[in-house]
């Protein structure tokens, strides 16, 4: 079946160097201090010259890309610029080297899209990490707070939400395949089945409609395989398949419940939750089949909903305690492997493409709200949202 396309509107952002400013190189990364887990500490910058709207958007964006805005006498760089209708521009001044980097201007689209483009350019220039301001997230929205949810796609900060599904039944677990296809679970035919949907054409296909539960779909980073949880033979077991749901291979066996698979960035390994050996714990298993290996979460218990960072270093997950849920992460390798770090109250956390920020769900007055978290600094800001509750986010990478 087909549903209306939601990606018909393209945004053209033009970019050029300002001729009045010159420098030898527009890539001026200066290695900074690292924290105990190897996260770069925020780059101190001083932002000046913009209107209140542009200033607010830019500071929001940069919070989740490794920057902190400080007074000029504490800054490493001064980001100075100006904006007018249809145009945002900026230039970086190195306060230590005493020199300018080439200035750039962004036009086309909305003011917000221009600022996002500027923020991503600054991230690349000053940290060498990918910018995330022009990326997309998907999530489950419940405009009435309760009842069936639908799948939505929005900008990373929650603006420009667009509804993907119109099923009127329980729908959840959206996962990206690239930046134009989603996979998700829907009860459209009376039980949980897995579907794919092309966001450009609106075409939707059934991928897994076996007897029992079909859920927990996760797409490999190379876009070639799916991991999913199927109960077609009894207990929920972990399977992998090709992108169309064919060439199905069962990875787990035995009693217990297996859930929430996620892929390593090299496409070779899956991390998932299982209680097959007693209490709920995290495990890894080769994607081509093999032995389950325990991944400790020292200091916390009952881990669920793992997500592997794109740089391969960390797994973020949810843990339940007496007062609710917490977001935690563990290093996958190295001397601190499995040593859990608690971050903030919340659940459903997934990594941004820069392996620094996550988007997650938190409870505000009995309503689910999507929020962004800068993992090293634990700074949290809510994203713009539809009315009602939002949950189960996934970030396009």
Question: What this model shows, in words?
Answer:
- The protein is globular, with a radius of gyration of 22 Å.
- It is mostly beta strands and 397 residues long.
- The chain has 2 helices and 31 strands.
- A hairpin with a 5-residue loop joins strand 27 and strand 28.
- 7% of the residues lie in helices and 44% in strands.
- The two termini are 27 Å apart.
- The chain folds into 2 domains: 114 residues, Double Stranded RNA Binding Domain (2-Layer Sandwich), CATH 3.30.160; 260 residues, TolB, C-terminal domain (Neuraminidase), CATH 2.120.10.30.
- The strands form 7 sheets. Strands 1, 2, 3, 4, 5, 6 and 7 form a 7-stranded mixed β-sheet that branches.
- Helix 1 crosses helix 2.
């Amino acid at each position: 079946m087909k549903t209306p396309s939601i990606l018909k509107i393209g945004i053209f952002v033009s970019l050029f160097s300002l001729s009045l400013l010159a420098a030898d190189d527009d890539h001026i990364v200066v290695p900074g201090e690292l924290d105990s887990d190897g996260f770069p500490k925020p780059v101190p910058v001083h932002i000046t010259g913009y209107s209140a709207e542009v200033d607010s958007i830019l500071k929001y964006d940069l919070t989740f890309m490794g920057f902190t805005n400080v007074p000029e006498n504490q800054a490493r760089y001064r980001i100075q610029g100006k904006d007018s209708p249809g145009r945002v521009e900026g230039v970086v001044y190195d306060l230590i080297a005493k020199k300018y980097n080439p200035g750039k201007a962004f036009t086309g689209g909305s003011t917000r899209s221009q600022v996002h483009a500027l923020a991503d350019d600054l991230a690349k220039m000053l940290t060498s990490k990918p910018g995330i301001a022009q990326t997309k997230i998907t999530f489950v929205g419940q405009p009435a707070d309760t009842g069936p949810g639908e799948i939505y796609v929005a900008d990373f900060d929650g603006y420009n939400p667009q509804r993907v599904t119109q099923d009127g039944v329980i729908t959840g677990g959206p996962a990206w395949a690239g930046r134009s296809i989603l996979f998700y679970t829907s009860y459209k035919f009376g039980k949980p089945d897995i579907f794919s949907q092309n966001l450009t054409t609106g075409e939707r296909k059934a991928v897994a409609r076996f007897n029992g539960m079909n859920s927990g779909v996760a797409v490999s980073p190379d876009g070639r395989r799916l991991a999913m949880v199927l109960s077609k033979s009894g207990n929920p077991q972990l399977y992998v398949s090709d992108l169309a749901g064919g060439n199905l291979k069962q990875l787990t066996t035995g009693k217990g419940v297996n859930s929430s698979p996620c892929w390593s960035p090299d496409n070779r390994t899956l991390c998932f939750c299982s209680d097959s050996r007693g209490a709920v714990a995290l495990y890894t298993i080769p994607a081509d089949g093999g032995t389950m290996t325990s991944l400790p979460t020292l200091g916390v218990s009952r881990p669920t909903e793992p997500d592997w960072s794109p740089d391969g270093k960390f797994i973020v997950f949810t843990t339940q305690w007496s007062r609710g849920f917490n977001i935690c992460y563990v290093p996958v390798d190295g001397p601190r492997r499995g040593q859990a770090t608690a971050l903030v109250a919340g659940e459903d956390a997934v990594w941004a493409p820069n392996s620094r920020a996550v988007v997650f769900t938190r409870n505000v007055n009995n309503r689910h709200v999507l929020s962004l978290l800068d993992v090293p600094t634990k700074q949290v800001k809510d994203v713009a949202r539809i009315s009602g509750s939002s949950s189960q986010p996934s970030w396009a990478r």
